[in-house]
Amino acid sequence: MDSHGQYEQQVVWAVVGTDIGPLMLAATRGGLVSVVFHATERVRDKALDQLASRLGAEPVEAPGSPLLAEAIRQVEEYFAGARRDFELPLDWSLISGFNRQVLRELASGVPYGTVVGYGDLAGRVGQPGAAQAVGTAMGANPLPVVVPCHRVVESDGGIGGFGGGLETKRKLLALEGVLPEPLF
């Protein structure tokens, strides 16, 4: 490391096995910055390339890093049914504007075991007509599971879309007791 290296962005990552498949967690000094579903090698490599270009630092695999240890512990507790709320510093640098506003409201205002409609969430951030834009924000969520976009559903009772796939969304909602456990 050169003399000014300590001021450079540091990005560390690890893969955690969960009931919905491998999740890749990445963190900076600012907090958890990215959660990636279905983190097979191919998906992971693509995500790491994107993180490197967007954050300006080459991510380093470091499951033992103090920046990641607490996030890994809390994710494991969540999937074990032992944790309802994530209490982690979050680095919001991958998302901005309306999308960040909506996701912050979701993170703070839609608790475990509850759901909210796309339109309702739009109203909460003062944009009642922006249900579609809320859907776009959910699709752009860099921190799924921790910022619970799986809790956003269609007002007519439809499950809505999901970046991790509908089966993953159903499993997360079942874990939280919102939906019955899938039979198969």
Automatic annotation (TrEMBL):
<feature type="active site" description="Nucleophile; methyl group acceptor">
    <location>
        <position position="149"/>
    </location>
</feature>
<dbReference type="Pfam" id="PF01035">
    <property type="entry name" value="DNA_binding_1"/>
</dbReference>
<keyword id="KW-0234">DNA repair</keyword>
<dbReference type="InterPro" id="IPR008332">
    <property type="entry name" value="MethylG_MeTrfase_N"/>
</dbReference>
<dbReference type="InterPro" id="IPR036388">
    <property type="entry name" value="WH-like_DNA-bd_sf"/>
</dbReference>
<comment type="function">
    <text>Involved in the cellular defense against the biological effects of O6-methylguanine (O6-MeG) and O4-methylthymine (O4-MeT) in DNA. Repairs the methylated nucleobase in DNA by stoichiometrically transferring the methyl group to a cysteine residue in the enzyme. This is a suicide reaction: the enzyme is irreversibly inactivated.</text>
</comment>
<dbReference type="GO" id="GO:0003908">
    <property type="term" value="F:methylated-DNA-[protein]-cysteine S-methyltransferase activity"/>
</dbReference>
<dbReference type="Pfam" id="PF02870">
    <property type="entry name" value="Methyltransf_1N"/>
</dbReference>
<keyword id="KW-0963">Cytoplasm</keyword>
<dbReference type="GO" id="GO:0032259">
    <property type="term" value="P:methylation"/>
</dbReference>
<keyword id="KW-0862">Zinc</keyword>
<dbReference type="InterPro" id="IPR036217">
    <property type="entry name" value="MethylDNA_cys_MeTrfase_DNAb"/>
</dbReference>
<keyword id="KW-0479">Metal-binding</keyword>
<protein>
    <recommendedName>
        <fullName>Methylated-DNA--protein-cysteine methyltransferase</fullName>
        <ecNumber>2.1.1.63</ecNumber>
    </recommendedName>
</protein>
<dbReference type="GO" id="GO:0006307">
    <property type="term" value="P:DNA alkylation repair"/>
</dbReference>
<dbReference type="InterPro" id="IPR036631">
    <property type="entry name" value="MGMT_N_sf"/>
</dbReference>
<dbReference type="GO" id="GO:0005737">
    <property type="term" value="C:cytoplasm"/>
</dbReference>
<keyword id="KW-0597">Phosphoprotein</keyword>
<keyword id="KW-0808">Transferase</keyword>
<dbReference type="InterPro" id="IPR023546">
    <property type="entry name" value="MGMT"/>
</dbReference>
<keyword id="KW-0238">DNA-binding</keyword>
<dbReference type="InterPro" id="IPR001497">
    <property type="entry name" value="MethylDNA_cys_MeTrfase_AS"/>
</dbReference>
<keyword id="KW-0227">DNA damage</keyword>
<dbReference type="InterPro" id="IPR014048">
    <property type="entry name" value="MethylDNA_cys_MeTrfase_DNA-bd"/>
</dbReference>
<feature type="domain" description="Methylguanine DNA methyltransferase ribonuclease-like">
    <location>
        <begin position="11"/>
        <end position="91"/>
    </location>
</feature>
<keyword id="KW-0489">Methyltransferase</keyword>
<dbReference type="GO" id="GO:0003677">
    <property type="term" value="F:DNA binding"/>
</dbReference>
<dbReference type="GO" id="GO:0046872">
    <property type="term" value="F:metal ion binding"/>
</dbReference>
<feature type="domain" description="Methylated-DNA-[protein]-cysteine S-methyltransferase DNA binding">
    <location>
        <begin position="98"/>
        <end position="178"/>
    </location>
</feature>
<comment type="similarity">
    <text>Belongs to the MGMT family.</text>
</comment>
